[in-house]
Amino acid sequence: MKLDSPIPEPVVEQALYEVRRKVYPRSVTGWFAAWRWALVWLTQALYYGMPWLTWNDRQAVLFDLTARKFYIFGAVLWPQDFIYLAVLLVIAALSLFLFTAVAGRLFCGYACPQTVYSEIFMWIERKLEGDRMQRMRLDRAPPSARKIGLKALKHALWIGVALWTGFTFVGYFTPIRNLGNAVLTLTLGPWETFWFLFYGFATYGNAGWMREQVCKYLCPYARFQSSMFDRDTLIITYDGVRGERRGGRSRSADPRSIGLGDCIDCGICVQVCPTGIDIRNGLQYECIGCAACIDGCNQVMDRMGYPRGLIRYSTENAVAAGWNFRQMLSRAFRPRVLFYTSILWAIIIAAAVSLYLRVPLKVDVIRDRANLAREVDGAMIENVYRLQIMNIQETAHKFQVSASGMNGLRVEGVTVFEVPAATTKMVPITLRVERGTVTPGSHPIDFHVQAVENEQISASERSVFLIR
Q: How far apart are the C-alpha atoms of 412 and 431, rounded to whole Å?
């Protein structure tokens, strides 16, 4: 063997997926934790409470897929109103872009269902098993009656919350009081059963078992969030200039005199993080923006007598240039933020005006293909139609039907029809015209439907009258 031959480098195997190391988040109190719990209460009060509200003797919020009608308080949306669902999704997407451009992952940290239910499940876990160190000791302890009992009770409560969540979810599509009776009498339908159990299982698995794995590996938002960030986006940052060099010291010691920064390397910021990352390593896609590390670090700074804000909401430009809060906020209204805001408000205003001006009546004309045109009474040409009159309002109306577009055109038979509240009614309409008054062929006509008691409720629909 030659002495100058290169020494081969050792082969290092690296897994593409790291086996999960369980994260034990430490409880934390503070301004951001209070905000997070306020939004937990708000979102869950809305989610669990809205199906039980009533409006006009019906469920206030109900997406009745069987009847193809969506009830949202006083509004009734039909399949023809699908555009409003598309607009709602566009508004949600633009809002997400706007909030992310301004202040990072606000939705993830405070209102995302994964965050909300993880907080609820961790609260149950802490109440039964204790805080971080107690839970770690319990998991390392050998099996015992106490350990099995605590674990069983915890999972029973988790399953209870998950099943109630699944029950509420189905209650938005099936009247929740009927659904409750069906559950109690074991007469739940197959689709209700599937979604009840599936949504409950998903809640239990995601919030109880997977937690940070969902944010790290399943959620696509974490992967493309960087495309919506810039150097003026508010993110959770560690002030390395102020914090380095890290190291322990006594409270009475002057950190500058011993060559240390304000960071005492206590690890609290890591211990309170629900995804188990170290924010001192810089911006990471695993950071969900919950600000637990800010509350934890501020408590340590208070105990050491140092100024707060070693970890804080700031921007990359502000940290690099040493800007104060006012200078940082002056960059908040930059072009992309103004663009998102203007487009968002334009869509919201347009949708609101459209809903306000929406006529609570829709009409469709269907020709009777069995009798396109026929001669009756010797000198009359008759066409038969079916009008689908859709009463969107939740009050019954009588509608007058008329037609125009040809000389001598008249409606034969009944011309006034009563349509119950939020109902579609198919009515036959016969139109006649004298032979010889109009040339043979296809002639455009208009049907007019108007509420008898309210002239403002009216609609017109075009069709054709055939003469052979």
A: 6
**What backbone phi and psi angles, to 5 degrees, belong to 414?**
-70, 135
d(CA 158, CA 207): 9
Cis peptide preceding 245, ω within 30 of 0: yes
Q: Which residue type sits at 78? A: W
Task: Quote the tokens at residue 19.
Answer: 């086996």
Residues 6 or more apart from 159 whose CB is under 8 A from it?
A: 200, 204
Q: Where in the chain is the domain with CATH 2.60.40.10?
A: 361-467
- What is the pTM for the complete model shown? 0.82
Residues paired with 367 in a beta bridge = 385
Tokens of 272: 């309170």
CA–CA separation, 24 and 302 (whole Å): 24
Give the 3-state secondary structure of residue 451.
strand
Please check whether residue 451 is in contact with residue 466, taking contact to mean a CB–CB distance below 8 angstroms: no
What is the model's pLDDT at position 1? 45
Name 361's bridge partners. 391
Q: Rounded CA gap, 442 and 178, in Å?
A: 52
Distance (Å) of CA 36 to CA 99, 197, 210, 234, 433? 16, 28, 20, 17, 71
- Quote the pLDDT of residue 105: 87
The percentage of residues in the chain with a pLDDT greater than 90, rounded to a whole number, is 53
Exposure string for 401-434, b = 16+ CB within 10 A, e = fewer: bebeebeebebeeeeebebeebebeebebbbbbe
pLDDT at 225: 74
- Tokens coding 203: 């809640």
What per-residue confidence (pLDDT) applies to 295?
Answer: 95
Calpha distance 397→324 (Å, rounded): 63
HSE at residue 320, side-chain half, CA atoms within 13 A, is 6
- Assigned token pair, 114: 């994964």
pLDDT score recorded for residue 370: 67
pLDDT of residue 236: 92
- Which stretches of the chain score pLDDT less than 50? 1
What pLDDT does residue 459 have? 92
In this structure, what DSSP letter does residue 216 have? Answer: I
State both tokens at 140. 């390392």
How far apart, in whole angstroms, are the C-alpha atoms of residue 186 and residue 76? 31
Give the alpha-carbon dihedral of 259, 261, 263, 265, to 10 degrees.
-20
> Which residues, other chains included, contact 320 with Cβ-Cβ below 8 Å and sequence gap of 6+?
none
Distance CA 459, CA 309 (A): 62
Q: How far is CA 148 from the centre of its chain?
A: 37
Fold category of 361-467 in CATH:
Immunoglobulin-like (2.60.40)
Rounded distance between C-alpha atoms, residue 136 and residue 255, angstroms? 33
Cβ(62)–Cβ(168) below 8 Å: no
Query: What are φ and ψ of residue 269, in 5° steps?
Result: -60, -30
